[in-house]
Structure to design on (460 residues):
């Protein structure tokens, strides 16, 4: 539709006033149409606003709040769009007619309860289907074509919901498992973490879903964490048997599992006769303080770290609590200190180490003088290690009278006395020399008529 408008004359056409500034103008009717026109469409259909007679820029306003030239609809309803544009520089607002749309939704098959569903012997369950429209078809894997079914046997039940509506036809499915338990059922306890742990430690256990839970520990949840702290006494010091009773449908039936044995392994350490012993020889034996009598064929792993070489460790595996130092590889050296710790090995799996203990290894008493240990007339023998040292030294004396202290003097190579010390014969060893400057010194120890002299080297 067009109208001829003469110069300088106002005309009302298609809902707008136009003023003509030229001699004549041809104005095309403005309109906006929603495409497709419907009324029956599939969920997700795209609606376009088709505009004629307007120049841009164009702005859009749909009744659902959208501001784009196209929208996608998923709900049944009436739709309308308003468009603003320009005619000969004048802004014009044009609205479409209201358009009804019946949206055919997609199906969403759902079974309630969602499962798994557990039943006592002789019980039944009703499965409720949903997810379609009044015109949708419901079909079950049992052959039933109703929305709901009642079942009494163990199995998987599948519901299919279909819309048969031309190009809008859709189909979805859902499955639920039903378990009917017999009287001999025993709940399964699943270990969610190792059931043997270092003491103290946690063991995580779980059960199948769909029950009311009553664990022997007092817990009532499906999954539990059991603290193994070894506080019991006697032969079962580090073991705990955990069982589970489950019930269904408000206690209509209940079942109890066999027990599962949890174990925490205590961390052994050196026996007190050897921890802090600085008078061992390379052929002596050391012993763990813990007897794992409640475990089948335990082994003991001894770890050694020579104190002048921190961070470098080596181990020896023993089938008993005893470790002969002569069997350790690499060989244990005399005049050295070692940090030692022990851990149990159960069925090939190593567990946690106990605390460190320090031991000192000396030469087997002899008449040799290697500059580290010196024997003189009588029975007084001195061992000093590590030597050389960048920090302090430790002296271990043997052959002294335990009722008297030993006088210790440090001199430099010029014979000047650097420091006088007292060796406490009840202490077992003496640490010294941390503040010495770099150099060579002589350390003499004297008790009565017995004297021993050792040369030491301080270096950084």
């Amino acid at each position: 539709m067009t109208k001829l408008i003469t110069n300088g004359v106002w005309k009302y056409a298609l809902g707008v006033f136009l003023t003509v500034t030229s001699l004549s103008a041809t104005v095309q009717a403005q309109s906006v149409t929603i495409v497709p026109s419907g009324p029956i469409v599939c969920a997700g259909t795209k609606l376009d606003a088709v505009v004629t007679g307007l120049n841009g820029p164009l702005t859009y306003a749909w009744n659902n709040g959208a501001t784009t030239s196209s929208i996608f609809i998923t709900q049944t309803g009436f739709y309308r769009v308003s468009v603003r544009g320009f005619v000969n520089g004048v802004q014009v607002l044009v609205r479409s007619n209201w358009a009804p749309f019946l949206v055919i939704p997609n199906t969403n098959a759902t079974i309630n309860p969602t499962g798994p569903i557990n039943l006592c012997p002789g019980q039944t369950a009703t499965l409720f289907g949903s997810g379609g429209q009044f015109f949708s078809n419901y079909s079950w894997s049992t052959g039933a074509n109703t929305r709901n079914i009642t079942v009494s046997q163990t199995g998987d039940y599948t519901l299919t919901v279909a819309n048969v509506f031309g190009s809008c036809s859709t189909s979805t499915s859902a499955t639920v498992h039903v378990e009917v338990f017999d009287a001999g059922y025993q709940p399964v306890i699943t270990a969610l973490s190792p059931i043997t742990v270092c003491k103290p430690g946690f063991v995580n256990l779980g059960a199948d879903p769909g029950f009311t839970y009553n664990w022997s520990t007092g817990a009532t949840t499906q999954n539990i964490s059991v603290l193994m702290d070894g506080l019991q006494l006697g032969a079962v010091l580090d073991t705990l048997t955990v069982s589970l009773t489950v019930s269904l449908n408000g206690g209509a039936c209940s079942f109890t599992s066999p027990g599962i044995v949890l174990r925490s392994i205590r961390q052994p350490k050196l026996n007190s006769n050897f921890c802090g012993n600085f008078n061992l020889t390379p052929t002596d034996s050391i012993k763990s303080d813990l007897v794992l009598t409640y475990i089948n064929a335990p082994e003991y792993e001894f770890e050694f770290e020579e104190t002048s070489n921190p961070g470098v460790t080596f181990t020896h595996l023993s089938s008993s609590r005893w470790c002969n130092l002569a069997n350790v590889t690499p060989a244990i050296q005399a005049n050295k200190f070692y940090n030692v710790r022990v851990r149990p090995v159960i069925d090939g799996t190593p567990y946690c180490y106990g605390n460190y203990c320090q031991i000192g290894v000396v030469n087997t008493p002899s008449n040799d003088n290697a500059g580290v240990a010196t024997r003189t007339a009588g029975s007084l023998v001195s061992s000093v290690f590590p030597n050389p040292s960048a920090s302090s030294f430790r002296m271990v004396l043997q052959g002294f009278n335990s009722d008297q202290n030993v006088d210790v003097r440090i001199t430099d190579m010029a014979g000047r006395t650097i420091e006088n010390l007292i060796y406490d014969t009840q202490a077992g060893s003496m640490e010294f020399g941390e503040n010495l400057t770099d150099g060579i010194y002589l350390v003499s120890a004297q008790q009565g008529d017995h004297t021993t002299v050792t040369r030491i080297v301080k270096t950084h």
Summary: The two ends are 106 Å apart (CA to CA). Residues 1-27, 365-378 have pLDDT under 50 and may be disordered.
